[in-house]
Amino acid sequence: MDFGLTETQELIRSSARxxxxxxxxxxxxxxxxxxxxEAISTLWKSVVDLGWSSLTVSEEHSGAGLTFSDLAVLLxxxxxxxxxxxxxxxxxxxxxxxxxxxxxxxSELLPQISSGEILVTPAIVERDASxxxxxxxxxxxxxxxxxxxxxxxRFVAFGERATHxxxxxxxxxxxxxxxxxxxxxxxxxxxxxxxxxGVPVCSLSFNEFEVGQSxxxxxxxxxxxAAKELIAVGSVARSAQLAGLGRAVVNATVDYTANREQFGxxxxxxQAIQHHLAEMAIASKQVNHLVHVxxxxxxRDGYSIEAAARAKIAASDKISQVCWTAHQCHGAIGFTWExxxxxxxxxxxxxxxxxxxxxxxQSILAEALGL
Length: 371
Fold this sequence. Notes:
By secondary structure, the protein is α+β, with helices and mostly antiparallel strands. It has helices at about 5-25, 25-35, 35-50, 70-80, 85-100, 105-115, 220-260, 270-295, 305-330, 340-350, 360-370, and strands spanning about 120-125, 140, 145-155, 165-170, 175-180, 190-195, 200-210, 215-220, 260, 265. Strands 1-4-5-8 form a 4-stranded mixed β-sheet.
């Protein structure tokens, strides 16, 4: 299999690097981590203007109609620069709406997502912090034309800025996946949560919130299938970001150890440090390979459950270890607020659990392989 980038992907990568070097510097990441809403809005508007929010939206719904592999190339660069944007959340929501939404719902929502008029973010996790769709307890009662939703979703990324939440609920014993409009809704309370990632995360509390039946994507077993696919596509998207993050940490550590001197020589000349650097580079390459295998499996016909699980297992375990090994090579300086390494470490620790940690995906892989 040829893992080289296509001409389109090369263009995506080079333009993304140029933009992010100027617009997602460590200083910008720190400002947004401090809660600067204006900085988030400015960056997201620029992302939308570049057309990234429409990348995987189908052409018939005013998008670019590119593949998930193309998106993965972009997400790698976003991860390498720690760009605090809701592109993953928006893109994976698009994927599920395209696959499971009715024609009328797709015609209504996708052009608006593409243009940046609305922002959709997943709301799956609850009090138990489980990504298992079967554990959903947020309740909904059903009438002829609407659902009445009550309950709390937690760790909703960019929930305070989102206009809609792709939410898994339970109608008695039947699960349902719905796109719920939450922008300035009186019966939805948004509570900010402290989070290691440095991006805004909140809980959403629904208090008998009414949403039309037309906003329901799927019910019953189809809703569980759609939720599992949402988690799979989210895990690969996050793994792509982790792959980029790992590459950036390896490059930064190589540069540091080549210039930091101890005992009259560069610390990178010591064998122990060289072993660390080699292990970090190998781990980063492994994750990159598995991510692109998984990304290529996604199409309008489905995806590879095994490939998605392998990518997230490797990304969650290996990239966080790459960061800790980088700290050993940097010494105590890497833990200071002024140094950039701790920004990467915090983001890796947060992302390793997003859309399921390695243990969660190991169970999915074992089930898929019949073990």
